[in-house]
Amino acid sequence: MTLPRTTEERAVALAGAGLAVFPCRDDKAPSCPDGFKVASTDPEEVRRLWREYPGALIGVATGSASGIDALDIDPQNGGDVWLDECEQFLADERCHQTRSGGRHYIFKHHEGVRNSAGRIAPGIDVRGDGGYIIWWPMAGCPVLNDDDARLWPDDLVSLAMKPVERAVSAPVSSRPALQDGGTPYGLRALENECYEITSAGDGRKHAALNKAAYSIGGLVASGDLDEGVARSTLRASLNSIRSRCRDFRAAERTLQEAFQAGIGKPRQVNRMQPADSISDDWAPMLKTMSDDVEEEPEPKDPDPDFSITEKRLLSVGGFIGDFIEHATHTARRPQPVAALAAAITLVGSLAGRRYCSPSGLYTNLYVTTLIDSGGGKDHARKLIKEIVAMANLSKWLGGEDIASGAAINTALSTHPIRLYMIDEAGDFLAQCIGKKASQHKAQIAQKLKILSTSANTVFLGTDYANAKERPREDVWNPVVSIYGTSTPSQFWNAVAGASLHDGLMARFLLFEPANSYPDTQNPDASDLPASLIGSARLMAAGPKYDQRPNLEPVMIDPSRPATPFTVPFGMGSSAILSRLETAQDELLKRYAGTYVTSLCARIAENAIKLAMIRAISNNPASPIISPEDMSWGGDVAIACFQKMRDGANRYAAENENQARVKLVLECVRRSGKEVSLSKLYRSLNGRLTIRERDEAIKVLEDEKRICLSSRTSPGAKKPTTYVRLAG
After folding, report:
1. Residue 111: CB partners within 8 Å, gap ≥ 6?
2. Dmax over Cα atoms in the chain, in whole Å?
3. Which contacts qualify for 113-118: CB closer than 8 Å, 24 or more apart?
């Protein structure tokens, strides 16, 4: 949807939809006296409000005023803990992402629902009668689910309306059963609070420690955590930042006192009933699969369509979510999909040799974003440079071009992690895999194929005849990543005629937004958030290292094997991966004997890498691959596979004849309804002779993919032949 140009016109549009609106300042406070009490659905009154009290944001009065209520999820105050357990129950509800990375779930107003804070769980607020929300989609934030508002689920509305009860210690017999030291809710909360301690910057450590200890003490009192496990885990987190504490004994006293105070105030934890299983919506074929019975899905002609939406791909938080938010607000043409692709590659590169999966996969990825010229494809790449430079991590960046395969060897021998950011990636690939590729450039393609699978082992250098003067340089655990940008035509022209069997193209994750030209905006000129810089340094340092102002003491030695932290799978994640691997096998069987097998053979591998990247982005101190991480990783991997498969089907060719046929077909497709033979020849721009054009047309006509017709224009002596797509 194209948004109206001004906030006033956007507010009028919402009023026309029956929402009572009023102006708010950029800090979310009302800019008019009486705030939501003067909210209106009358267009003229709305215009008057904005003329007299201009506001950058649009407030919507909740409750009976607009007929809607909102469930406000604040991850910065513990809301993500509850959401991890209950998100699956909210999958069908309308959902807006907030500017800070939270969520607003929108429901039809239920009589009696009023404002409340933390009644359902910490970080979970309700907005009903007597309250308001900011309508974030009108401020450029994504709509994660654009379905119409539905009625509240019965069990959820009962929690929202439940009167606040004074918390009392639960009898031992009624407390939840503990496994591994706590309930899933308690252990997740403990993990999050420990991350807050270890990631707190100077000036925030005391507050973070006090809040974490008090909160966890409350969960011990409620029976959600074992006291010994909670206390020892908190102390371990404090010990990990000992070198950054000015007065460690004072910090220990703070932990002890806040922990005991929390035990005296048991937390009231409300949960929706647990799910029987985790649902996945990767593809129609996956919907037919059972956990207990393996069934072969019915083949679909011509290719299965997985229909994974952009809003699903963008359902991320942590560093990646913050990167997307900043990139979107500071770009003249906001391109959140391009920002997602860039952030994924950056996290994968920074995590480098610090993390690996249980199967030994590292986070190196080759990624390309396709956006037409003038669409804003360069902005995210510039942000990567800025973050890396300000985080003092420039050694992680490679050059913006690669001269030869030997140049890659030399770069890795000085630093085993390299993120290459390639503009005009289509031209770069054409030089490496095209039929006219020079020996130096062809060697790059060969090196990149080897390096994509060498991160968990040693990469052997080149042997030279004068070995004494030029000894072989081996590199342990090289992590090479690529983030490229290209126009679609440039990229697919590079692929056309290239062989996809050799596998380099199959190693790329391909992203392309639905719209290359979103509406322009006046970009936010704000400075790079310190949180992005700090998070980048945390990921580069890894979970085993203290935060230091200079990372040189933990600099990576390419001559020694890495000792990464193994990111474990959380409960339920392995089952999701198993179903994804089954789907991959079905695709391999479907496409056996074709180049498409090289594209789909890495879906599961890429999904694991992506899930690990998402987990690290959320919690670099102690990441765990959650079911949601694994499901999202599968979605992204399959969406990228489908994008590459569909483009390859349209442009790539196995031989010269097939390349000519596809070239002619694409020119006909771009021409519109029909095109004359002479105009078609001109559009080919000399790439084919008339004979080659006619041979390609004959093949397409025989395959019933085009239709030919002739007619004589008034005054013409000979008829003109026209070509159009069949059907």
Report:
1. 64
2. 100
3. 113/63, 113/69, 113/152, 113/157, 113/160, 113/161, 114/63, 116/160, 116/164
The two beta strands, 508-511 and 366-370, are: parallel
pLDDT digits (tens, 9 = 90+) for 82-119: 887 777 778 889 999 888 778 999 999 999 999 887 77
**CA distance linking residue 247 with residue 229, whole number of Å:** 25
Quick one: which of 47, 40, 45, 36 has its CA closest to 19?
40
Task: Name residue, tokens 């190196």.
Answer: 364
Determine the straight-line distance between the first and last CA of the chain, rounded to whole angstroms.
30
- 476-528 pLDDT, tens digit each: 889 999 999 998 877 877 766 555 555 777 889 999 998 888 888 888 777 88
Tell me 569's DSSP state: B
DSSP string, 623-656: --B-HHHHHHHHHHHHHHHHHHHHHHHHH--SSH
Compute the average pLDDT of residues 436-465. 81
Whether the per-residue pLDDT at 271 is higher than 60: the answer is no
- The continuous run of DSSP H or E covering 563 comes out as none
- Contact in structure between 23 and 49 (CB atoms under 8 Å): yes
Give percent above pLDDT 90 in the chain.
27
Under 8 Å between Cβ of 215 and 262 = yes
Angle, CA of 441, 447 and 452, to the nearest 5°: 130
Q: What angle do CA 137, 143, 147 make, to 5 degrees?
A: 115
Beta strand 479-486 with 417-422 is parallel
Distance CA 88, CA 36 (A): 32
Nearest CA to 339 out of 393, 376, 390, 391 is that of 376
Question: What pLDDT shows up at residue 380?
Answer: 93
Residue 291: per-residue pLDDT:
34
**CA atoms within 13 Å, Cβ hemisphere of 175:** 21
Q: DSSP character for 78?
A: T
Query: Residue 536's CB: how many other CB atoms inside 10 A?
Result: 24
CB atoms within 10 A of CB 379: 22
- Among 234, 238, 262, which Cα is nearest to 250's? 238
In degrees and rounded to multiples of 5, residue 555 shows phi and psi of -60, 150
Give Cα 671 to chain centroid, integer Å.
Answer: 35
Using CA of residue 208, residue 214, residue 220, residue 226, what is the dihedral sign? positive
Segment 500-504 long-range contacts (CB within 8 Å, at least 24 positions apart): 500/595, 500/598, 500/599, 500/648, 500/652, 501/595, 501/598, 502/433, 502/445, 502/449, 503/449, 503/598, 504/429, 504/432, 504/433, 504/445, 504/448, 504/449
H or E segment to which residue 450 belongs: helix 439-451
Instruction: Give the separation between CA 283 and CA 299, rounded to whole angstroms.
Output: 13
For 85, the token pair is 């357990």
Strand partners, 482: 366, 420
Q: Shortest CA distance to 352 belongs to which of 620, 170, 164?
A: 620
Q: Residue for token digits 């691959």?
A: 625
- Map residue 220 onto helix, strand or coil: helix
Alpha-helix residue ranges (DSSP H) falling in 74-150: 79-86
Give the C-alpha distances (Å, rounded to integers) separating 233 from 175, 190, 539.
21, 8, 21
Question: Helices (DSSP H) in 293-335: which residue ranges?
Answer: 310-313, 318-329
**Phi/psi at 514 (5° precision):** -65, -25
pLDDT at 369 over 90: yes
Phi, psi of 439 (to 5 degrees): -60, -40
